[in-house]
Amino acid sequence: MDAFTRAYWDAAADGRLLIRHCRTCDRPHHYPREFCPHCWSEDVDRVPASGRATLCTWSVVHRNDLPPFGDQVPYVAAVVDLAEGPRMMTRVVDVPEADLRIGMRLTAAFRKDEAGVTVPVLTVPVLTAAPPDV
């Protein structure tokens, strides 16, 4: 976390996922950086993402010797396509390994890590009940 990425982390703490959008080529990208990786323009801004994503690939990590990850194994490290277009590396939580499928729909959730920083993770969407017939 630094001065440039603070807005991203502050939004996550509020339960919002931000991505970057280039005003020059009109393309979104993720992770937060000061220039567009597509056209190299510095005319980029922060925009809210829907939090909807599709699972591209994943791996279940059973061993990680780096703190604090060693205490969190096993966990699912994943690559997802955000609905807005960019790919994002993240963790999938609260989904049994046997239920993971390429192409499955996921949605953003936010969890505090051991340092108290809120990070975006992905999980299955919460289904809401249909309104009763009147």
Structure in a nutshell:
The model has no long low-confidence stretch (mean pLDDT 91). 6% of the residues lie in helices and 37% in strands. The protein is built from one helix and eight strands.
How would you portray this structure in words?
This protein has one helix at 6-13; strands spanning 18-22, 28-29, 44-48, 52-61, 75-82, 87-92, 105-112, 118-123. The protein is mostly beta strands. The chain has a 5-stranded antiparallel sheet. A hairpin with a 5-residue loop joins strand 7 and strand 8. It starts with 5 loop residues before the first helix and ends in an 11-residue tail after the last strand.
Provide tags for this entry.
mainly beta; three-stranded antiparallel beta sheet; 37% strand
Task: Describe the secondary structure blueprint for this structure.
Layout: H1 6-13, E1 18-22, E2 28-29, E3 44-48, E4 52-61, E5 75-82, E6 87-92, E7 105-112, E8 118-123
Antiparallel strand pairs: 1-2, 1-3, 4-5, 4-7, 5-6, 7-8
Instruction: Give Rg in angstroms.
Output: 16 Å
Task: Let me know the average pLDDT.
Answer: 91
Uncertain segments:
none
Shape: globular
Secondary structural class: mainly beta
In N-to-C order, the SSE pattern is: HEEEEEEEE
Biggest sheet features: 5 strands, antiparallel
Total beta strand runs: 8
Indicate the percent of residues in helices.
Answer: under 10%
Strand order of the largest sheet: 6-5-4-7-8
Distance between the termini: 50 Å
| Approximate strand percentage | 35-45%
Number of helices: 1
